[in-house]
Amino acid sequence: MSPRTAEFEKDASERPNAKRSRPLTAIAVGGLIVGALDLTYAILVYSPRHPILIPQTIASGLLGERAYDGGMATAILGVLLHFTIAFGAATVYYLASRKIPFMVTRAFASGLLYGAMVYGFMQLVVLPLSAAPHHPMALFLRACEFVEHWFFVGLPIALSVRRYSP
Fold first, then answer.
1. pLDDT per residue over 138-166, tens digit each?
2. pTM for the whole structure
3. Neighbours of 19 (CB within 10 A)
4. Of 100, 146, 102, 101, the residue nearest 120 (C-alpha)
């Protein structure tokens, strides 16, 4: 058997150019991108003059109103919580994509749908159960956040999983 024939008979996973699954990379890259984009969006839209308020608001999910009195310590806690949620969302998507191959083969559509689902879960489950102060939000801002979750949450996660863990 010639060396060239032997190369073609190798299992695809043994070929040097074959894509191999890297789940931790998929989750890490997706989570980092989502965490950074979503946090930046929130700061620019809701508190560009006092950016510390956004991570403190996230920390208020655990600490309630006292999060706003904690200065940089509660802001750091808020950033850590925010990225924990982002990595959690990326992990859930990755795990689901192992059972539903469509989530990888149709990453764009799946990512948009997943972003909408993450938004719904945050609004209907996480926020009502949190200690964060609840304030009414204009319908326009809710709609903007909903669309933001398509492109800044669901899509980066889906594309990361497709890229690093096909």
1. 999 999 999 999 999 999 999 999 999 98
2. 0.87
3. 12
4. 146
CA-to-CA distance for 153 and 114, rounded, in angstroms?
Answer: 8
Q: Is residue 11 part of a domain?
A: no
Amino acid code (one letter) for 47:
S
| Cβ–Cβ < 8 Å for 138, 70 | no
Distance CA 74, CA 53 (A): 10
Q: What's the total number of domains in the chain?
A: 1
For residue 132, give both structure tokens. Answer: 């964060």
Closest CA to 52 of 24, 78, 87, 18: 78
Rounded Cα–Cα distance for residues 101 and 166 (Å)? 9
Q: How far is CA 144 from the centre of its chain?
A: 17
Domain assignment present for 10: no
Q: Is 103 a member of any domain?
A: yes
